[in-house]
Amino acid sequence: MKILVLNGPNLNMLGVREPAIYGRRTYAELEAFVRETAAAAGASAEVRQSNHEGELVTWIQQARGEYDAIILNAAAYTHTSVAILDAIKAVGVRTIEVHLSDPSEREPFRHLSYVSMAAEATFKGRGFESYADAIRHVAGKGAC
Ligand code: DQA
Fold first, then answer.
1. Is there an atom of ligand 1 within 6 Å of 98 CB?
2. Which atom of ligand 1 is nearest to the CA of 99?
3. In CATH, what number is assigned to the domain containing residue 127?
4. Which residue range is the domain that position 120 belongs to?
5. Is 131 annotated as catalytic?
């Protein structure tokens, strides 16, 4: 089971960015947490972050035939990006949406998720554990 974990804009600022919402653990700690959690679930995780919408689109496209699942925190692009939605639909790789916070309990502009329109499941509001929930979800269902 090979999982591609993609993180969108500003997630590289974890630890510094709005700690009351996102906590004090850093992006490097998130990467390590995801890799360790995947290994414990019998999977391998490639973890990437980009501040660029097009780069995320390209990585989603390239996942076809390479990865069994994508775990995607598109960050702010969640709420704006038809291009990311279209990429998920185009490649047909099962995609799980994750968020550290719970966007549905925040500002109204975060309530719309384009990613949700194509995602198999969404895990949110549990900090790093949202990623662990997503990893266990995909690993539990086996390779596709
Ligand atoms: C986020 C929630 C988004 O609304 C926000 O723009 C982010 C992070 C989260 O993980 O809680 O950048 O995706």
1. no
2. 10
3. 3.40.50.9100
4. 2-138
5. no
Global pTM value: 0.96
Measure the CA–CA gap between 19 and 2, rounded to whole angstroms. 31
Q: How confident is the model at residue 107 (pLDDT cuts 50, 70, 90)?
A: very high
The tally of domains found in the chain comes to: 1
Q: How many residues are there in the chain?
A: 144
76, burial (CB in 10 Å: exposed 0-12, middle 13-18, buried 19+): middle
Q: Is 111 assigned a catalytic role?
A: no
Quick check: is 144 in a domain?
Answer: no
Q: Which residues, other chains included, contact 68 with Cβ-Cβ below 8 Å and sequence gap of 6+?
A: 1, 2, 3, 93, 94, 138, 143, 144
C-alpha of residue 102 to centroid of ligand 1, in Å: 8
Question: Do 99 and 22 contact (CB within 8 A), yes or no?
Answer: no
Tell me if 7 CB under 6 Å of ligand 1: no
110 found inside a domain? yes
For 49-91, write each residue's pLDDT tens digit: 999 999 999 999 999 999 999 999 999 999 999 999 999 999 9
